[in-house]
Amino acid sequence: MKRTGKTVLAILQYVATGVAVYAAFGSPSFTRKFYARLGKKLKRQASYYLRRKLSELEKDGYVTLGPERIRLTKKGRLLLKQYESPSINVDDMKWDKVWRIVAYDIPNTKSKQRNIFRQHLRNLGFTQIQKSIFVFPYECKEEIAILARQSTVEAYVLYLHASYLPQQSELKKHYSL
Q1: For the segment 133-172, what is each residue's pLDDT rounded down to a tens digit?
Q2: How far does CA 42 lie from the centroid of its chain?
Q3: Are the C-beta atoms of 157 and 102 separated by less than 8 Å?
Q4: Burial class for 52, CB neighbours closer than 10 Å (0-12, 13-18, 19+)
Q5: Exposure b/e, 128-141, CB count within 10 A at least 16 = b
Q6: What is this structure's pTM?
Q7: For residue range 57-106, what is the model confidence (pLDDT) as tens digits?
Q8: 67 domain residue, yes or no
Q9: How far is CA 173 from CA 99, 123, 167, in A?
Q10: What CATH number did the domain enclosing 141 receive?
Q11: What residue numbers bound the domain in which 38 lies?
């Protein structure tokens, strides 16, 4: 599979949770719900497109299609795990006036992993202040270590602390600090 998009990930997540029954992917009501979950508009060929994606996933070894059930293979579970983000619960956290900075220099040979890592940082709530520099106000060293390990980029990632940033006032507003 050349590119892993939202649709493919959503299919894998449905299969992983046991929701997916092969016949459901041809059902118009399932297709509507599926596309609504993705936040996409339903196209005329949506059912055909989902079935084609499923066939591609089977061909690439991510799922096995049975007469009625779809199963996630080990390769599919590994792919899904690569895209899962750890989460940071900031509700009970108090800002200690220290900024957490994640900087990376991931080579082009690992561009897929770099893109995954960058998306995870955004999903965690980090703010991008330069091309490969992200900032966050709360402690998250363990989460970044897990994320870097999952994305196989730990050798290229730095985790830093800073007490002052030039754009600090905008960041304080952004994070409601």
Answers
A1: 999 999 988 889 888 888 889 999 999 999 999 999 999 9
A2: 23
A3: yes
A4: exposed
A5: ebeebebbbbbebe
A6: 0.60
A7: 888 888 887 666 677 788 888 777 766 666 666 667 788 999 999 999 99
A8: yes
A9: 14, 19, 10
A10: 3.30.70.240
A11: 6-83
